[in-house]
Each structure stands twice: as C-alpha cells, then as structure tokens.
C-alpha cells in the first residue's frame, strides 16, 4: 500500500522528534563494525546505464574503512524522494556513526501550483511555506522542509548528515566558461539546511557545485564538453569519476567546515581542481 505524502512526512517528523540521546544509548550495541555512508540523490548521483553514470558509483574507491550504499534514484527531487518513502527507508536503515549524503536540486525547480505539476517541484521558499499541487491537491513543502525533516530523523538515529550542493550543468556549453555567476538557488538552500541544523553537531555542508565548477575551469572547454555525451546535465562515466573526485577533494579541503567523511578519505586521492 502506497502511503500518502502527508503520512510519510509525519512519520519522518515523528522519528525526528525522538530524543536523539536516548536513541543513541539504545542503539550503541547495534553499531556496525564498519560504518556506512548512504547517498540520497538524483540521476547525477545514481547508478545508471549505457553512456551515462552518476558520481556516486565512483565514490567507493576514494574512501576506506566505510561502506558506500548508493540510494540515489534517477528523476527524483527532495519532494518525490520523500513521497516515495525513500528518506524514511534510509532513516530506518541507519545506525550510529553512519553518514548520509543528501544531494538534490536538478529536479526541484518549477511550480507545483500548475495543473501539469510533475510531482517533483518543491514549493518556493526556504522555510514553512506550503503550496497546493494544481494537479493532485497535495500539500507541497519547500526544499529545505523536505531535506531538513529527513535529516532530523536520520540524526535522531545517531547518524550524521552531509548536505551536498547539486552538481552544475555543463559550464562550457556555450563555448565560454559560465561558472562565474551566482549558482542555482538550490546550492544556497543546501548550505542553509546545514546551518539550520548546525546545533545538532551532526550536520555539515559540502559545496559540490563549486568544486565541480572549479574543476571544469581547470579542464577547459574541449575536455569538459567531451564529458557530456547526451545533454548538459548528465556526464559520461569518465565525467562521473571526475565529479566524484571533486567531491572527495572538497571534503578533504573542508571549505565549509569538517565533515565526518573526511576521516575516511583514502590517502593519495588525486586533486582535480
């Protein structure tokens, strides 16, 4: 039976409201011998097929002492990932000392108020704003509401959350570098989510967007364009490998503060920007 979006969100909120300290004490005996990092995201992170691949599939060789489970699904947004129960699934799986990387944005734009609402667009805003789907009548929440509600439920289980900004589209698509302007709004939203939950001591931010943008500037026009064989969003396997290395380098440099993943970086990972 498919649960309603309201039920799923309420379940996450209820899990998040549990005193994290009591949950940690209860689950201490259930800690894994090796912690796990879960990846929650869209096709740019997910395992795909053919000539395209998400960066999450290339993260494991860059880490040591931690297991990577890629839960990213193509075509998802923070909203649809919530409504399908995927955040709830991860919240049920995590144990103390696990890490969850949350990276969305590519599918979160648009207007849910439209009669042609695609089920992915979030309500504009960064707080408690609520929209009504013009197609289904569903209550639609903001990007920050979805990812922060999920993060609270995960943190309540003793795990940590890394909010990672979405990857950029091809910044050399027009033949000149387009990475100097203001990034898409979901980059700032991911950073805000980490700041909003900073008091938990278990939320951090990685600016994956800027790391990849810096890498593309270094790679130049011809090389960057060669990584996009289908469209301006999805990279080839070679591109996904480089995007994963950019993420690992951003974690190492701790631009936005230290994340719990830093201690698991493999020595000798290459610098790509």
From TrEMBL:
UniProt entry tagged with the keyword Ligase: no
Keywords: Hydrolase, Signal
InterPro entries to which the protein is assigned, alphabetical: RhgT-like, SGNH_hydro, SGNH_hydro_sf
GO molecular function: hydrolase activity
Boundaries of every SGNH hydrolase-type esterase domain copy: 40-241
Signal peptide (residue range): 1-20
Taxonomic superkingdom: Eukaryota
Family of the protein in this entry: Belongs to the 'GDSL' lipolytic enzyme family.
Name of the protein described by the UniProt record: SGNH hydrolase-type esterase domain-containing protein
Lineage, broadest ranks: Eukaryota, Fungi, Dikarya, Ascomycota, Pezizomycotina
């Amino acid at each position: 039976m498919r649960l309603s979006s309201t039920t799923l969100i309420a379940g996450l909120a209820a899990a998040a409201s549990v005193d994290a300290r009591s949950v940690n004490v209860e689950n201490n005996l259930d800690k894994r011998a090796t912690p796990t990092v879960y990846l929650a995201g869209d096709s740019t992170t997910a395992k795909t097929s053919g000539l395209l691949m998400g960066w999450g599939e290339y993260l494991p060789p860059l880490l040591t002492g931690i297991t990577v489970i890629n839960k990213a699904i193509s075509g998802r947004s923070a909203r649809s990932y919530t409504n399908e129960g995927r955040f709830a699934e991860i919240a049920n799986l995590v144990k103390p000392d696990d890490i969850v990387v949350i990276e969305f944005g590519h599918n979160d734009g648009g207007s849910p108020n439209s009669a042609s609402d695609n089920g992915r667009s979030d309500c504009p805003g960064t707080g408690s704003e609520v929209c009504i789907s013009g197609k289904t009548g569903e209550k639609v929440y903001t990007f920050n509401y979805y990812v922060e509600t999920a993060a609270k439920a995960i943190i309540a289980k003793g795990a940590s959350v890394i909010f990672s900004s979405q990857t950029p589209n091809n910044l050399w698509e027009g033949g000149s570098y387009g990475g100097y302007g203001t990034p898409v709004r979901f980059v700032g939203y991911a950073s805000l989510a980490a700041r909003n939950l900073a008091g938990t001591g278990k939320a951090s931010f990685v600016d994956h967007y800027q790391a990849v943008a810096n890498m593309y500037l270094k790679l130049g026009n011809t090389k960057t364009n060669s990584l996009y064989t289908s469209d301006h969003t999805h990279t080839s396997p070679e591109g996904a490998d480089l995007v994963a290395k950019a993420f690992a380098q951003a974690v190492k440099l701790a631009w936005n503060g230290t994340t719990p993943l830093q201690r698991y970086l493999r020595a000798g990972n290459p610098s790509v920007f």
